[in-house]
């Protein structure tokens, strides 16, 4: 199975996110977008809007200053 055939789940811990947008900007597959709903800290957190497109590159997890994103296989 090639990397592209794998399925990944992308989870943002919304209340840890400060809405900086780095993960959204760096995801080449446009998996992430800003939620219209504010989180508990008053930010628009990132959310996974297209997990099916995720290739598991982990760029988003590396860019997030708040360790708010988890990407795992399956
Ligand atoms: S792992 Fe890569 S493709 Fe998947 S959401 Fe993060 S940056 Fe996008
Ligand atoms: S990089 Fe982290 S803190 Fe910034 S928007 Fe993405 S999940 Fe939120």
Care to describe what's here?
This protein has 74 residues and is α+β, with helices and mostly antiparallel strands. It has one domain: Alpha-Beta Plaits (2-Layer Sandwich), CATH 3.30.70. It is 14% helix and 22% strand. It contains two helices and four strands, in the order βαββαβ. It has helices at residues 22-26, 59-63; strands at 8-12, 32-34, 46-48, 69-73. The strands form two sheets. The protein has a two-stranded antiparallel ribbon. It has a two-stranded antiparallel sheet with strand order 2-3. The protein starts with 7 loop residues before the first strand and ends with a strand. The mean pLDDT is 95. The structure holds iron/sulfur cluster (SF4) (2 copies). One iron/sulfur cluster binds at residues 12, 17-23, 45-46, 63-64, 66, 68-69.
CATH classification class = Alpha Beta
The tally of strands reads: 4
N-to-C span: 13 Å
Tell me the radius of gyration: 12 Å
Record the SSE blueprint.
Layout: E1 8-12, H1 22-26, E2 32-34, E3 46-48, H2 59-63, E4 69-73
Antiparallel strand pairs: 1-4, 2-3
The structure holds iron/sulfur cluster (SF4) (2 copies).
Keywords:
single chain, 74 residues, alpha+beta, Alpha-Beta Plaits, two-stranded antiparallel ribbon, two-stranded antiparallel sheet, 2 helices, binds iron/sulfur cluster
Provide a quick synopsis of the model.
This protein has helices at residues 22-26, 59-63; strands spanning 8-12, 32-34, 46-48, 69-73.
């Amino acid at each position: 199975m090639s990397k592209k055939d794998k399925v990944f789940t992308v989870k943002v811990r919304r209340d840890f996110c400060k809405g900086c947008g780095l993960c959204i900007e760096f995801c080449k597959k446009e998996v992430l977008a800003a939620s219209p709903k504010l989180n508990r800290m008053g930010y628009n957190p990132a959310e996974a809007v297209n997990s099916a497109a995720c290739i598991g590159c982990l760029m988003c997890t590396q860019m997030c200053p708040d360790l708010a994103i988890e990407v795992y296989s399956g």
